[in-house]
Write a structure and sequence with these properties.
Largest sheet: 7 strands, mixed
Helix content: 25-40%
Mean pLDDT: 95
């Protein structure tokens, strides 16, 4: 069915750069003409496209994205790519997705590891994110826990985590107001604000990593290019062996810390 021209025109007038593509997605997802009108209206008001659709494609996986929950960014696929390369083979890897949001990272990684090759746990402090993540993680046999970082995890995971994904908030508090409206108004602040220098949550994750990582286990976290050196020092200061990697095409920077003691 061709996309109505008036929808494309409306979306373009609202500032949607890829108006034609968005119109096609909205049309395909709408259950009725009235539903389509409501979805277009939400998008025009600035709601993220993923919230309007109720889903996003991330790392080859289609994940549910509920209103108010952090939308997985395409650049973060680089973190999953690096985690896939570093995950142990030949056994059932233990994967933890901290600050999981939708659970997209854990879901994409486990899928890349052929599902049954990993034991997946995810955690978030935001109840809305936990509800959303369960929809994405449970079909893969994973568990989602509600709470503050490691406090949410089962004690039995201590010293067993092979891959610790930590897509922590890293926007400095003073720069949150500079974010695009879609993020500022429609995503949870707790998923964006990383403290004065953007590294507060990473410091807390790093401080506990040694107790939760298995021998040779690896912590991976996304950061900005300008924060990369400081983020690397955070991991090095707790005794992890650090590496910083970038993907120029995705404008992505990932810092990894490996337990080598």
């Amino acid at each position: 069915m061709p996309v109505p021209h008036d929808i494309v025109t409306t979306l373009r007038a609202a500032g949607c750069v890829f108006a034609e593509d968005e119109a096609e997605l909205l049309l395909a997802s709408a259950r009725s003409p009235a539903d389509l009108d409501a979805m277009v209206a939400r998008r025009v008001l600035g709601h993220p496209l993923e919230h309007v659709l109720g889903w996003a494609c991330f790392g080859g996986v289609r994940v549910a994205v509920d209103a108010g929950v952090f939308v997985p960014r395409r650049r973060t696929e680089f973190l999953v790519e690096r985690a896939t390369a570093l995950a142990p083979r030949g056994g059932r890897a233990v994967v933890v997705d901290l600050c999981c949001g939708t659970g997209a990272l854990g879901a994409a990684l486990v899928t890349a590891l052929d599902g049954g090759a990993a034991e997946l746990h995810a955690a978030d402090i935001d109840p809305a994110a936990v509800r959303c993540a369960r929809r994405n993680v449970a079909p893969l046999g994973g568990l989602v826990h509600e709470g503050d970082l490691y406090a949410a995890l089962p004690a039995g995971l201590r010293g067993r985590v092979d891959v610790l994904l930590a897509n922590v908030p890293y926007v400095p508090t003073g720069e949150v107001g500079l974010l695009p409206q879609e993020a500022r108004l429609h995503e949870a602040l707790v998923a964006l604000d990383g403290g004065a220098d953007g590294l507060d949550v990473l410091r807390r994750v790093a401080a506990g990593a040694g107790r939760w990582l298995a021998p040779s286990g690896v912590l991976l976290s996304e950061t900005s290019g300008r924060q990369a050196d400081a983020a690397a020092r955070v991991l090095a200061d707790v005794g992890l062996t650090v590496r910083v990697e970038t993907d120029e095409e995705l404008y992505a920077t990932v810092v990894t810390g490996t337990r080598t003691d």
